[in-house]
Amino acid sequence: MKNKILWLLLLSNVTWAQNKSLHPEAYLKIVETFHPMARQAQIGIKKSDAQILQARGAFDPILRHYITSKTLDGTNYYQYNAPELSIPTWYGIEVNSGIENLQGNRLDPSQTTGQTSYIGIQVPLAKNLLMDKRRAALQQAKLMNQMAFAEQRVVLNQLFLDAMEAYWHWLKCFQVLKITGQNLEAAKRRVDFVKRSVELGDRPAVDTLEASTQFMYMENQNLAKTLDYENATLQLSAFLWQENNVPSNLPKEVIPAEVWADYSLFSNFDLSLNSILEKVDAFHPELQAYQFKIAGLTVEKKLKFQSLLPKIDLEYNHLMKEKSSGYSGALLANNYRFGIKFELPLRLSSGRGEYQNAKLKIEEETILLSQKKQQIQIKINSYFNQFQNLKKQIQTQEKAVISYVSLTKAEESKFAQGESSLFLINSREIKALEAAEKLLDLKAYLFKTVYALQASAGLLI
Q1: pLDDT of residue 13
Q2: Is the Cβ–Cβ distance between 10 and 28 less than 8 Å?
Q3: How far apart are CA 399 and CA 401, in angstroms?
Q4: CA pair distance 237, 231, nearest whole angstrom
Q5: Under a CB-based contact definition with an 8 Å cutoff, are residues 47 and 256 in contact?
Q6: How high is the pLDDT of residue 31?
Q7: What 3-state class would DSSP assign to 370?
Q8: Which Gene3D superfamilies would you find in this protein's record (predicted)?
Q9: C or N terminus of the chain, fewer CB within 10 Å?
């Protein structure tokens, strides 16, 4: 019942006559809401959100608690209890604080018995000061999230383009079927007229054979176009889904909306070539995906550069003894633990190799970005030229259809007056049918081209 209500809501642009008609905007809404590819693209965004949350975990405060003790032959060697809280910060600095409680009879002389507390800081002075793995992971996760949105637009652009191509093909097949049906009815009326004329002695009997032959030709045409329409309906149904990933078949009573002359469908589309080309760099999702990927590789390059720096880590902890008078004096005068750690690979082979590889990855993706941009511009220009040409062809073909229909009617008038033949009428009628079908092909091609132009520029979504 819920799906049935949804269909009625989405068919809000429906015109009711004897049948229900499916408007392209309502059709696209169904595709966007329920098609598996659209839902998969949304899942990709949710996964990237989860990756950001995972990367933020590297900056979560950490609470540790270490407890250990040792006894042997009745001797209490030691009992050690040490809770600690460490807080990582964005710039690689880590603040920590804790308590140590050490008791026992066999202790290292360098260790302090009883309870002590400390608060301290660890600072990288070279490597990891400007970039480290935690910051790189979070920045890259954010860029991957933006890339996921761009990739979603890529998927939806292609999905909508494929869906609308199926719609325009379905509409064309429906219109062709209507024309062949009308011609079939006209051929049937002509057979009846000729039979009556033969019975009255106004026409030779051979005209009955001529009219019947034309009727059978139109009947076969109608059967062929019926098959085309049924197959087009199946192709359209492939884009219609319900909730819970359940495929849906288009009801037979639903027909295409009459939108051939409704160019208001293009009112939200940019059909200016210069304007479209200007928008490509800023809005095309495929180019944006490349740009985000390059930005992610730039973060990786910054991280790999850290491998070329010496590792110099400074650690300072201020110590406080239980029942002591507290802090007094300079930082390095009393009650402290201080250390500096220095590391430097003498040849830096690994660091130089990783940094060089990171730079080459950026160069490679930059080349691919330039190629993709050129391909997109060529495709846009091609579709725009096709759009302009189709408008002219349609204007010419509309005039041709009017002429062929007029010739057919004129031939029918002459035939009624005994000045023509069924052969000429049939020839005119077939030419008119072919011209009308050609016009429908051009109109469907025009609508497909407009949507393809928008999709090629990344503007369909």
Answers
A1: 44
A2: no
A3: 5
A4: 10
A5: no
A6: 93
A7: helix
A8: Outer membrane efflux proteins (OEP)
A9: N
Kindly list the distances between the CA atom of residue 14 and the CA atoms of 20, 108, 327, in Å, as whole numbers in the listed order.
6, 87, 81
In DSSP terms, 454 is beta-bridged to none
Q: How far apart, in whole angstroms, are the C-alpha atoms of residue 400 and residue 431?
A: 10
Q: Which candidate, 422, 51, 392, places its Cα nearest to that of 208?
A: 422
3-state helix, strand, coil in the chain (%, to 5): 60, 15, 20
Q: Is 124 helix (H, G, I), strand (E, B) or coil?
A: strand
Query: Residue 339 carries which side chain, given as an amino acid letter?
Result: G
Gap between the Cα atoms of 280 and 339, Å rounded: 55
* Alpha helices, H only, 248-348: 273-283, 285-305
Strands, E assignment, 303-420? 311-321, 336-343
CB 254 within 8 A of CB 199: no
Which tokens sit at 112? 């302090």
Of how many residues is the chain composed? 461
Asked whether the predicted pLDDT for residue 128 surpasses 80, the reply is: yes
Mapping DSSP to helix (H, G, I), strand (E, B) and coil, where does residue 219 land?
helix
Q: Is the pTM above the cut of 0.85?
A: no
d(CA 263, CA 282): 27
Q: Which residues contact 82 (CB under 8 A, 6 or more apart)?
A: 64, 65, 66, 67, 98, 99, 100, 101
- Average of pLDDT values for 263-275? 85
Q: Which of 443, 413, 447 is nearest to 428 (CA)?
A: 413
Q: What is the mean pLDDT of residues 117-125?
A: 93
Q: How confident is the model at residue 460 (pLDDT cuts 50, 70, 90)?
A: confident
pLDDT at 324: 55
Bridge partners (DSSP) listed for residue 103: 79
**End-to-end CA gap in the chain:** 30
**Which residue, chain included where needed, has tokens 């329920």?**
34
Query: Token pair of 321, please?
Result: 């003894």
Sign of CA dihedral 399, 401, 404, 407: negative
Give 251's DSSP letter.
P
Q: Residue 177 in contact with residue 333, Cβ under 8 Å? A: no
What residue has token string 């304007």? Answer: 275
Question: Which pair of tokens denotes residue 448?
Answer: 């497909």
Closest CA to 351 of 137, 128, 59: 128
Which string of b and e fits 121-143 if b means at least 16 CB within 10 Å?
bbbbebbbbebbebbbbbbbbbb
Of 259, 250, 236, nearest in space to 167 by CA = 236
What is the pLDDT averaged over residues 196-225? Answer: 88
> What is the rounded CA–CA span in Å between residue 185 and residue 187?
5
pLDDT score, position 204: 83
How many Å apart are CA 446 and CA 390, to the nearest integer?
6
Show the CA angle centred on residue 200, arms to residues 194 and 204, nearest 5°: 55
Tokens at 246, concatenated: 């359940």
